Each structure stands twice: as structure tokens, then as C-alpha cells.
Amino acid sequence: MSRQMHLNLFILACGHHQAAWRHPDSHIDELGSLDYYVSLARMAEKAKFDAVFFADGQYNFDLANSPRWFIEPLSTLSALAAHTERIGFITTVSSTFYTPFLAARMLASIDHLSKGRVGCNIVTSMYDVEARNYNLPKMPAHDVRYARAQEFIEVINALWDSWADNALIADRKGLYADVEKIQALNHEGEHFLVDGPLTVPRGPQGRPVLIQAGSSEPGRELAAQFAEAIYAVAYDLASAQSYYRDINARVQKHRPGFKPVILPGLVTYVASTEAEARAKQRELDEYLPTESALQQLSTYIGQDCSDWPLDEPLPALTPLDEFTGPKGRYMTILRIIETEKPTLRELLGRLAAGGGHCTMIGTPDKIADQMEQWFKNEGADGFNLMPPSLPHSLQDFIEQVVPELRKRGLFRSEYTGDTLREHFGLSRPDLVR
């Protein structure tokens, strides 16, 4: 079979557009309902997506204007696994706030309960307001967080490998487990003290799938050393190719012969005509609170834009090499302005849905053309779909774009495996001790 795309559904509140919850047809009153998430997971499973993904945050920002972290994802994943059969589930885990034993135990448990369908996205977190919820006065320095993340991953992998595959005997005549095949870690590192072994036997996948999403230099190195799948941020094909080639080159230095699954985020507005697709975008943009959106943009660009004319192009911004704030998002904003030449109002709407992630607007065949171009030209192995409105944008994508991808032989019609590893084309890892 020829190479095919991977597709994940990234579930966030009522959709990735910050104003989606304000739409009269939104499901804002269901964010605490399991039925809401089950319906989305089943839609994705029926379409044969690889996985459902939940991000996570340990903070409350701008609660007056946008919902984000209503639910805790690990507990949600375990519930969703009971209502689905084949689709995978990926949760975000912070190596700064979690301990390795707790994370390894919870993820291994869900891997057993889901029959091998779980993965975890390891992040280092970033805000001081999060740190103060976890007994830290402020976030550790960037290099400290990444050193901790590396040790964290090494320890959770060792915990998942602390039971051999055949250690569990379950002989009713008397032997539950072969203790000679269960090993303690006795790990004492710079950040963690963990004796082990894990209380949970080795799971159906051997280990849950490890995902990483770092774009900084330490983040890319961490991904190159450990990640089996990678979430990427790419505004256009050129930036996607640069990241894709860089990561794969780094991976070959650390793990020769291994190929991670690279999945850029993707926001789509799709309809039978491009005019209709753009009308869907404008409809959500109209619900965006202008004042808070301007405040957010001011933070991104490091200057007050609250009195700029909304329906005119933006004034010249500081060149990238002179900008002193976070450069990744700022560089994307500059590229959006240069490429799309939006008015200020259009830029606010563009950033409200997916930020710097790729946005494709148009007919099913046009969007499929663009996705195929990325897929066949070292831009992506698939996409982390970020519907601007849920469930509406997801339904549009499934009903209109997925059939077009299948017609081109780019996406599966049926699952060929049962575990997340099998969906991603990853082998079951050997026991390492």
C-alpha cells in the first residue's frame, strides 16, 4: 500500500476559533458533558482518524472571553475509551508539574483499559501562573525545564519497561507474576528519585506513544531523541518543509533509521464554493470581541494597537531582527501580513482561529490539493486538525474533504490495526533495561 496521511482531531472547547462559543449553534452548555466529547470522538472514529488529541493548561487566562481548559484530559480519555473501539487518544502531560511515576502509572492504566490506544504529548509548560498552582514561585528556567523533561521521559520509559512482556503469569495455582522479570529502577537523578518498578504490567503497546511539540532548539533536540510523533506549527509549506527536514536530520543523528510522524496543525473552512467557505470564516470572526483581540495582538507584537483603524492595513511593524519578544509567533504574524495583506480586523480573525497554524479556506478539492502538496513535498506526514467550530467544521471536513482524500488514495477507508502505534505505523518497542 502507498503511503497515506495521518489525521488527528484536536478537540478544544467549542472549536479553535476563540469566538466559536458565542455562535448561536455552539455547544457551550455541553463542555462538562461526556456526551459532547463522545459524539466528537465517534465522528472522528467513523471517519477513521488516527487519534483524538487534547491539549492542556494549568491556568485561567481571559475567562471572560473564551473557554479553554474546562475538563482534565487524562480522566476524559479513559471515559472516551469506553465509548469507542479503534481510534487512538492522546493527552498532554507536563513534565514540569507531573512526576514520572504518576504519569507512567496513569498512562499505562489507560493503555490497558483502551487495549493499546493511548499516547502522550510531553510539554514543559511556560507560564508563571501555572507554576504557582504547583507549589513553584515561578517557572524554572527554559534550559532547566528541558533538562527535567529529558530525565522525565527516560524515567517513564524505564517504568514502562520495568515489567517484561511475559512477567505477568496469572496462574491460579499460585503464581501471579514472575518477580525475576520485574525490575526496580532505583533511579536517583538531578530532578527525580524513583525506585520503581511500576505497579502496572507492561501495556498492550509496550509503551504508550510519545509525542512532542517543541519548536525551540531544546524542543527540537528533545523531539529528535525521543518523539515518535511530533506536533508542528507551520504557517505555510516553506516553513513546514524547513521544520520537517530539520527534525528528520536531527532524528537520524540520535536514532538512525527511525522516522517520526510529523503532524502540523491545520485549520480549515470548507464549502462547495470559496465564497461560501470565506463566509463561514467571516461569520465566526463577527463574534470576536474586538477589545480583547486587540489586547492579545498588542501582546504578540509588543506595541499598543488599540487605536489602529480596524478596516485598514496594518502600519509597518518592527523588523524581526529588532523584535525583543518571543519571535516564533511574531515571525508568523509578519508572514501573514506580507502574504495575505489583511486589514487589522481580518488579522484579528485570522489569529483567533489557530494562531500561527496553517489555515486552508476553500472547496474540498482545493483543500485536498494543498494537503496533498504538503504531504508529498516533505511538509507533513498528516495533520492535526483544528476545527474552528465544533462539531460543525469537523463535520464539513469529514463529509467533504475526507472523501476527496480517499479518492486520491491519500487516506484510509478502514483501520488496518487496533492500536495507536499501528495507526501511526510504529513498531512495538523492544524492552530496554
Notes on the structure:
This protein is α/β, with parallel strands linked by helices and 433 residues long. It has one domain: Luciferase-like domain (TIM Barrel). The protein is 39% helix and 12% strand. It has 14 helices and eleven strands. The chain has an eight-stranded parallel β-barrel, surrounded by eight helices. The relative contact order is 0.15. The mean pLDDT is 94.
What's the short story on this structure?
The chain is built from 14 helices and 11 strands.
Structural class: alpha/beta
Q: From the 3D structure, determine the CATH topology.
A: TIM Barrel
User: Helicity, in percent?
Assistant: 25-40%
Order of helices and strands: EHEHEHEHHEEEHEHEHHHHEHEHH
**How many domains would you count in the coordinates?**
1
- Rg over C-alpha atoms, rounded to the nearest angstrom: 22 Å
How much β-strand is present in the residues? 5-15%
At the fourth CATH level, what is the homologous superfamily? Answer: Luciferase-like domain
